[in-house]
Design goal:
Layout lengths: L3 H29 L1 H6 L2 H25 L4 H22 L7 H22 L4
Length: 125
């Protein structure tokens, strides 16, 4: 039977794989037509945020498993870590950068974190 932690790890692996595909596709398009590609680069920001967070989740799971924590405790730690990141992003929202792309990347990170919080709330049967 698949545990909640196994399911979350699978979701994170899928997140990483999908993001890597999207970034590679964008890189190819960027070489072919840089100006056009940059004009439509919104999805690559989301993919970059997903890639970063997916890798972070997989690393955290690996680290927590070395501490002999129960799966439910690891999921709880992940939930706390991700919620802390959302809270930190929300506190910084009033202090925007002068860089539009930096601000957009922050928004994409917050969206990725919110997506993972939703995963962590889904019951696995």
């Amino acid at each position: 039977m698949e545990t909640k932690l196994d399911w979350v790890a699978g979701q994170a692996e899928s997140m990483v794989e999908s993001a890597e595909r999207n970034i590679a596709l964008f890189a190819g398009k960027l070489t072919d037509n840089p100006a056009y590609s940059m004009a439509w680069a919104d999805s690559v920001f989301s993919s970059a945020a997903d890639l970063e967070l997916g890798k972070q989740i997989l690393k955290l799971i690996e680290v927590f498993k070395t501490k002999d924590l129960a799966d439910n405790d690891i999921v709880a730690h992940l939930r706390t870590t991700i919620q802390d990141q959302i809270n930190c992003s929300a506190r910084r929202a009033a202090n925007k950068s002068t860089s539009m792309s930096s601000n957009y990347m922050d928004d994409c990170r917050m969206a990725a974190n919110a997506k993972v919080i939703e995963w962590l709330q889904v019951p696995v049967e």
